[in-house]
């Protein structure tokens, strides 16, 4: 009787383990979306106060299903991101436009978090540079 019970317990254990192991790859494959950025950092260098503080981060959906950008947030209100609200089909490109307020002088380094269906963690983009007062004539 003990052998019968032991065999049933072991069979249930191995069955449970085999099911849980096969479910993990299926979950990761079910996502199927993937994002690849051309670059994740942009250095404006030195720009004049009131100058052009916009930059577009280019990305491509390298996954198997449409890529959906759920949210894009900046680390402060001086940086405003704009992103596509419609799904990006596999193989297609998209752009995230970032505008920095160049009326604020001094050095800056800001991060932009991209939340999408390709990962549970956000992708981080960085802009940096220095805004200087224009030279007086």
Explain this structure:
This protein is an alpha+beta fold and 137 residues long. It is 22% helix and 42% strand. The protein has a four-stranded antiparallel beta sheet, with no helix packed on it. A four-stranded mixed beta sheet has the order 2-8-7-4, with no helix packed on it. The longest helix has 30 residues, at 2-31.
Structural class: alpha+beta
- Walk across the major sheet and give the strand order: 1-3-6-5
Query: In the CATH classification, which architecture of the largest domain applies?
Result: Sandwich
| Strand residue content | 35-45%
- Describe the largest sheet: 4 strands, antiparallel
CATH superfamily of the largest domain: Immunoglobulins
Number of structural domains: 2
Notable traits:
137 residues; alpha+beta; Immunoglobulin-like; four-stranded antiparallel β-sheet; four-stranded mixed β-sheet; elongated
């Amino acid at each position: 009787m003990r052998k019968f019970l032991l065999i049933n317990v072991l069979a249930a254990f191995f069955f449970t383990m085999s099911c849980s192991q096969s479910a993990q790859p299926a979950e990761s494959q079910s996502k199927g979306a993937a994002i690849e950025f051309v670059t994740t950092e942009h250095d404006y260098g030195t720009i004049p106060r009131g100058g052009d503080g916009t930059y577009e981060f280019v990305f491509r959906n390298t996954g198997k299903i449409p890529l959906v950008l759920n949210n894009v947030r900046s680390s402060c209100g001086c940086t405003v991101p704009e992103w596509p609200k419609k799904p990006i089909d596999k193989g297609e490109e998209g752009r995230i436009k970032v505008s920095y307020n160049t009326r604020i002088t001094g050095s800056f380094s800001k991060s932009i978090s991209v939340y999408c269906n390709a990962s549970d963690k956000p992708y981080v983009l960085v802009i940096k540079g220095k805004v200087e007062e224009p030279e007086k004539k």
